[in-house]
Write a structure and sequence with these properties.
387 residues; Rossmann fold; Rna Polymerase Sigma Factor, Chain: A; 2 domains; four-stranded mixed β-sheet; 16 helices; 11 strands; 45% helix; binds NADPH dihydro-nicotinamide-adenine-dinucleotide phosphate
Length: 387
C-alpha cells in the first residue's frame, strides 16, 4: 500500500462481478488516485485470487466460508489478510483506511454491508440498487445521521446526478429515466410466453451479470431504478417517468420547473459512471471511445408498455404503497429470476408469481431493519411455495 494521502482507498464488494471488474479497470487506469484496499467475492475463488495477486489489497473476503482454505492457501505468500463469511463483509467495510465502498454485489445480500459502511462514514459508490429498493427509507436515514454521501453508479442515476450538479433540487419538476427496452421490446405477449433464458441473457446494449440482465429483459430493472431514484433524489412517485430509448445513448434526463430539460449522454459503458462516482466532485480524464453523433444519428423514444411488462407496474405499485412492499417485490423477484435461470418457470410466470407473492405477504407500513429481514424471509418462502 502506498502512503500518498490523496489516494482514495477503495473496498469493492463483489469484485469478481461485471461492475467489480470494470471498477478494477478504472482503478488500474488511475493509479495516482485510487488504491484497492479490500476485495470480496462470493464463490469465484479463481478470479478473486488473481485480482488479489495483481492489486495487492490489504484484505480479501470470500463470502462462502467453505472456500476459505482455498483462498487462504493461494495467498499464503502474499501480505494479504484473508477472511470468510458474511459477517466479515460487514467488518471489512468499517476498516479505518477505507475511503470509498463500492457496493457491487448483487441482491439483498448487499443491504447489511452497505449499512455498516454508512455507519462507518465511508463514501458509498452504490451499484447495488436492491439496497435502496428494499430499505430506501432506512438507508437514507442512516446516511443522513452519519453525513455519508451515497453516489450513484447505476448509469441512469449517475446521469440524473450529473444533470443536477449546480441545480436546486426544489426546481426539479420530474426526472425521465430511460430504458433500453431490453431484448424483448418488440415481442408480443404470445411470444414472451415462450422466450428462453438464452434469449433473455442477450441484452442488446449492455454486458452485465445474469440477474440484472434478466431484470432488464423483464423491465423489473427499470422498476427498481424508479424506486432507487425516489430515494436517491428525494422525489415523489408522481415526479418519475420512464421512457424507452432503445439506443441507450441518453442515460436519463431531468425536467425543471421552467420546462427546461437536461440530459446526460454517452456511449453505453459502465466505466464512465463508476469513474464519475470514484472521482466526484472531479471529472477524470480518460481515453474511452467518444460519442460520435454522426454514427448515432437516430435517437428514438417511446412509452413503456406495462401490459406486456407487468413488473414495471408492480414496482410503481410498491413505490406508491411503500412500507415493506418493495422489499417483498425484491425478494419475490430474486427467487423467480433464479428459478427462470434454472429453467423451472417461464418468462411470464415470473410476473404472475411476483404478483401472487405481493398479495399474500404481510404488509408493514413502517418497517424496522428487523421487519425487513423477516419480510424478506417470508416473501422468499411464499414465492418458493408458488414454484
Ligand atoms: P454480477 O453477478 O456480475 O456480480 C455480482 C458480484 O457479487 C460477484 O462478485 C459475486 O461473487 C458477488 N456476490 C453474489 N452474491 C453474493 C453474496 N450473497 N454475498 C457476497 N457476494 C456476492 O453482478 P453485476 O456486477 O452485474 O451487478 C452488481 C450490482 O450492480 C447489482 O446490484 C446490479 O443491479 C448493479 N448494477 C449493475 C450494472 C451492470 O452493468 N452490471 C449496472 C447498474 C447496476 P461471485 O463472482 O464469487 O459469485
Amino acid at each position: 500500500m502506498g502512503n500518498n494521502k490523496d489516494i482514495k482507498r477503495v473496498a469493492i464488494l463483489g469484485s469478481t462481478g461485471s461492475i467489480g471488474k470494470q471498477a478494477l479497470e478504472v482503478i488500474d487506469e488511475n493509479p495516482d488516485l485510487f488504491e484497492v484496499y479490500a476485495l470480496t467475492a462470493n464463490n469465484n475463488t479463481t478470479l478473486l485470487i488473481e485480482q488479489a495477486i495483481k492489486f495487492k489489497p490489504e484484505v480479501v473476503v470470500i463470502a462462502n466460508e467453505s472456500k476459505y482454505a482455498e483462498v487462504k492457501e493461494a495467498l499464503a505468500k502474499q501480505p494479504i489478510k484473508v477472511f470468510a463469511g458474511r459477517d466479515a463483509l460487514n467488518q471489512v467495510v468499517e476498516m479505518e483506511p477505507i475511503d470509498i465502498v463500492l457496493t457491487a454485489m448483487v441482491g439483498y445480500a448487499g443491504l447489511k454491508p452497505t449499512m455498516h459502511a454508512i455507519k462507518a462514514k465511508k463514501i458509498i459508490a452504490l451499484a447495488n440498487k436492491e439496497t435502496l429498493v428494499v430499505a430506501g427509507e432506512l438507508i437514507n436515514k442512516l446516511a443522513q445521521e452519519n453525513a455519508t454521501p451515497i453516489l450513484p453508479v447505476d448509469s441512469e442515476h449517475s446521469a440524473i446526478f450529473q444533470c443536477l450538479v449546480g441545480e436546486d433540487f426544489n426546481s426539479i419538476e420530474k426526472i425521465i429515466i430511460t430504458a433500453s427496452g431490453g431484448p424483448f421490446r418488440k415481442k408480443s405477449i404470445e411470444e414472451l410466453a415462450t422466450v428462453t433464458k438464452a434469449q433473455a441473457l442477450k441484452h442488446p446494449n449492455w454486458t452485465m451479470g445474469a440477474k440484472i440482465t434478466i431484470d432488464s429483459a423483464s423491465m423489473m430493472n427499470k422498476g427498481f431504478e424508479v424506486i432507487e431514484a425516489k430515494w436517491l433524489f428525494g422525489l415523489k412517485p408522481e415526479q418519475m417517468d420512464v421512457v424507452v430509448h432503445p439506443q441507450s445513448i441518453v442515460h436519463s434526463m431531468v425536467q425543471f420547473n421552467d420546462g427546461s430539460v437536461k440530459a446526460q449522454l454517452g456511449l453505453p459503458d459502465m466505466k464512465l459512471p463508476i469513474q464519475y462516482a470514484f472521482g466526484y466532485p472531479n471529472r477524470l480524464q480518460n481515453k474511452y471511445p467518444r460519442l460520435d453523433f454522426t454514427q448515432h444519428n437516430s435517437l428514438t423514444f417511446e412509452a413503456p408498455d406495462t401490459k406486456r411488462f407487468r413488473n414495471l407496474a408492480f414496482a410503481y405499485q410498491a413505490m406508491h404503497k411503500g412500507g415493506n412492499l418493495p422489499c417483498i417485490l425484491n425478494a419475490a423477484n430474486e427467487i423467480v429470476v433464479a428459478a427462470f435461470l434454472q429453467d423451472k418457470i417461464g418468462f411470464l410466470q415470473m410476473s404472475d408469481i411476483i404478483e401472487q407473492t405481493m398479495n399474500k405477504c404481510t404488509f408493514i407500513q413502517t418497517p424496522t431493519y428487523e421487519d425487513y429481514v423477516l419480510s424478506d424471509k417470508e416473501a422468499r418462502d411464499i414465492t418458493l411455495s408458488f414454484l
